[in-house]
């Protein structure tokens, strides 16, 4: 940083610390509440007894295993569909010439500007017309052709030197071969970065799944958790916190484990 | 010449872009087993022609035959050629070994054949110890060798090269010129080599194709290109410094529509002959370049460094056989031009300046 004074440094560090504390506070509270008996919900005592009772209780009170399965299926399906569709589309936009190319790309950019929530009603109508209401596919379908992914991958593919493309073709690659052997490997950091964004977004997505699902077999974790937390008057805070931790644990663990790779691929993908 | 001697036949090939014509009705045969150099200034269409031969681009008009087959619609990988790029175009995510074997892997050649050829080529190129490195861990010269190895391992009869040495330093470039040439001879490759560097062209080529503005100026062996340029463009492009071009009126009291070309080394100082003004002198060690002016036309004379430096005014001479005649309007060489029909106008100059 240019011309950073001591005062600047203190200010930046202090602001960073405060933000981090603010951000971690709810999580810290959830951890506290989840691992202690209900009596310590609002009372801080270092000597309070630790317990896993809240987790057992939450797990037995609602079909969380089914919700986990639904969410895993949903997230996996969306990511797979996005990577396949958007890679193909991005490659076409980056390296092929076809009529209406810039118009179509314009449409895709418009998708980046539209808030998904505006489309809830419209999407619901579409899903009903397709007879897909209350299916896992219906939760994911509106997100398959991600404008963000197409844009990001197109930008990445456009940075691949043309001579690499040429060399691969001279060596006998077909169009798909070039994509698979040159563009995809070189686009990996961008794909990893996008994958992280996509998985965390859809793991946590709530409103659309709430509207389009209404049975245990299709409900993802977020919806299941909210129903668990609101309807059952008997559940205590500590149990709800245990359930919340449980549902977000895979994401948190995944991020902590792969933190270094994620940050690196974000850097390399040019998103900071 | 038999048909089978011709590896690539370019026949009235035009490539037009939105704004300009990169190639304009170009026709030329490229002979099998020869080292052919496409030489010309930047932007004259050399790379465009090479990419058309490779099938990486499609001509607007005309035909390209490889081994007698019309190549229209044939993808690059099926044309029986390999290519070396200026930037080397090594795949950064693959190791040296995988880069070299890329084409064989794409074509699903058996493991045994891959291993056997890799051994042979790696040995030939001295790449053995580098096979497990990534391209980013290699020097420019080593990357160049990997690119070459990738072309050679394909065992294809034709190899196209687009300015492959221009990113190397001078010393390495000189070494690679010799090595490239010897590889080409050893394997009997038909090489089409693009460069804007006439030293590369002169030292390596069996045959040079001089290009300018999307057209071919001249095709010939290096000696012919140097000694008998067909156009004033070739005359003024080849040689450092290039051939001097005088309007005939500067030297003779002859026809107006004539340009006379004389190489700097064919000019010498005399006591009689056209009179010139000294502009500058450049000492090159063995030689000395004398820049002068005759009647407003600049020229350069090359003399051995031991000979005396000319004074402010000096006379120049040359042998009859050193002269090249060009049509001043078209720039084309006038074959069989009879120089004895011209009479020197040295008297006039003497008179003017006296
Ligand atoms: N893809 C392209 N689109 C438009 N013009 C091009 C393209 N490729 C080359 N040209 C033009 O064609 C001419 C010849 O280019 P090129 O073959 O690359 O020259 P060289 O390799 O001899 O330097 C240049 O004027 C260049 O601007
Ligand atoms: Mg070029």
How is this structure best summarized?
The complex is a heterodimer of chains A (272) and B (354). With 272 residues, chain A is mainly α.
Largest interface: A-B, 18 and 25 residues
- What is the percentage of strand-forming residues of chain B? 25-35%
Predict the CATH topology of the largest domain in chain A.
Answer: MetI-like fold
List segments of chain A where confidence is low: pLDDT < 50 over at least 5 consecutive residues.
none
Radius of gyration of chain A: 23 Å
- How many strands, which pairing sense, and closed or not: the largest β-sheet of chain A? none
User: Overall 3D geometry of chain B?
Assistant: elongated
Order of helices and strands of chain B: EEEHEEEHHHEHEHEEHHEHEEEEEEH
Radius of gyration of chain B: 25 Å
In helices, the fraction of residues of chain A equals: over 70%
Average pLDDT over all residues of chain A: 88
Total helical elements of chain B = 10
How many helices of chain A? The count is: 12
Number of domains of chain B: 2
Overall SS class of chain B: alpha+beta
By CATH, the superfamily of the largest domain in chain A comes out as MetI-like
Multimer state: heterodimer
How would you describe the overall organization of this protein?
The complex is a heterodimer of chains A (272) and B (354). Chain A has 272 residues and is mainly α. Chain A is 73% helix and 0% strand. Chain A has 2 domains: 1-34; 52-270, MetI-like fold, CATH 1.10.3720. Chain A has helices at residues 6-34, 53-61, 64-95, 101-113, 120-129, 136-140, 147-158, 162-170, 175-204, 207-212, 221-231, 237-269. The two termini of chain A are 16 Å apart. Chain B folds into 2 domains: 3-233, Rossmann fold; 239-344, Beta Barrel (OB fold (Dihydrolipoamide Acetyltransferase, E2P)). Chain B is elongated. Chain B is of the alpha+beta class and 354 residues long. Chain B has 10 helices and 17 strands. Chain B has a 6-stranded mixed beta sheet, sandwiched between helices. A 4-stranded antiparallel beta sheet of chain B has the order 2-1-4-5, covered by helices on one side. Classes of the chains: A mainly alpha (272), B alpha+beta (354). The interface between A and B is medium-sized, with 18 and 25 residues. Magnesium ion (MG) is lined by residues 46-47 of chain B.
């Amino acid at each position: 940083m240019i011309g950073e004074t001591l005062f600047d440094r203190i200010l930046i560090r202090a602001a960073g610390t405060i933000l981090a504390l603010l951000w971690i506070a709810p999580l810290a509270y959830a951890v506290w509440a989840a691992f202690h008996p209900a009596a310590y919900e609002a009372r801080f005592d270092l000597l309070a007894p630790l317990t896993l009772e809240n987790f057992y209780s939450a797990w037995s009170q609602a079909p969380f295993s089914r919700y986990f399965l639904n969410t895993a299926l949903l997230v996996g399906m969306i990511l797979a569909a996005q990577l396949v569709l958007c890679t193909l589309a991005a490659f076409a936009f980056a390296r092929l010439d076809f009529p209406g190319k810039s118009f179509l790309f314009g449409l895709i950019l418009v998708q980046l500007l539209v808030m998904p929530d505006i489309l809830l009603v419209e999407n619901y109508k579409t899903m009903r017309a397709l007879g897909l209401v209350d299916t896992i596919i219906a939760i994911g379908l509106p997100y398959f052709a991600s404008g963000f992914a197409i844009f990001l991958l197109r930008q990445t593919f456009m940075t691949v030197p043309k001579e690499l493309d040429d060399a691969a073709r001279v060596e006998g690659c077909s169009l798909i071969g070039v994509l698979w052997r040159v563009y995809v490997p070189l686009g990996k950091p961008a794909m990893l970065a996008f994958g992280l964004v996509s998985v965390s977004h859809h793991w946590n997505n709530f409103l659309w799944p709430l509207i389009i699902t209404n049975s245990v077999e299709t409900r993802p974790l977020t919806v299941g958790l909210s129903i668990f937390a609101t309807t059952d008057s008997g559940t205590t805070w500590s149990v709800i916190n245990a359930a919340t931790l449980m549902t977000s644990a895979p994401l948190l663990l995944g991020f902590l484990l792969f933190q270094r790779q994620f940050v690196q691929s974000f850097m390399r993908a040019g998103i900071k | 010449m038999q048909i089978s001697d011709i590896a690539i036949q370019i026949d009235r090939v035009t490539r037009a872009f939105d704004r300009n014509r990169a190639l304009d009705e170009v026709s030329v045969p490229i002979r099998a087993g020869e080292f052919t150099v496409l030489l010309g200034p930047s932007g004259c269409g050399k790379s465009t022609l090479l990419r058309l031969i490779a099938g990486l681009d499609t001509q607007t008009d005309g035909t390209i035959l490889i081994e007698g087959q019309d190549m229209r619609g044939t993808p690059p990988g099926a044309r029986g050629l390999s290519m070396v790029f200026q930037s080397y175009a090594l795949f950064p995510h693959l190791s040296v070994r995988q880069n070299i074997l890329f084409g064989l892997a794409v074509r699903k050649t058996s493991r045994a054949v891959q291993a056997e050829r890799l051994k042979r080529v790696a040995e030939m190129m001295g790449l053995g110890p580098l096979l497990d490195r990534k391209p980013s861990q290699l020097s420019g010269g080593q990357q160049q060798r990997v690119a070459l190895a990738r072309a050679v391992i394909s065992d294809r009869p034709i190899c196209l090269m687009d300015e492959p040495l221009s990113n190397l330093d001078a010393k390495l470039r000189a070494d690679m010129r010799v090595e490239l040439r010897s590889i080409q001879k050893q394997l009997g490759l038909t090489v089409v080599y693009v460069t804007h560097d006439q030293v590369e062209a002169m030292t390596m080529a069996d045959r040079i194709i001089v290009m300018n503005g999307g057209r071919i100026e001249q095709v010939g062996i290096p000696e012919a290109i140097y000694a008998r340029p067909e156009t004033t463009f070739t005359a003024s492009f080849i040689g450092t410094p290039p051939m001097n071009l005088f309007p005939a009126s500067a030297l003779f009291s002859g026809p107006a529509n004539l340009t006379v070309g004389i190489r700097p080394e064919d000019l010498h100082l005399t006591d009689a002959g056209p009179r010139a003004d000294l502009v500058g002198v450049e000492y090159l060690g063995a030689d000395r370049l004398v820049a002068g002016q005759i009647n407003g036309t600049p020229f350069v004379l090359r003399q051995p460094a031991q000979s005396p430096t000319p004074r402010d005014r000096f006379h120049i001479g040359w042998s009859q056989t050193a002269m090249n005649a060009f049509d001043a309007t078209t720039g084309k060489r006038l074959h069989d031009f009879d120089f004895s029909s011209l009479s020197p106008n040295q008297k006039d100059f003497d008179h003017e300046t006296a």
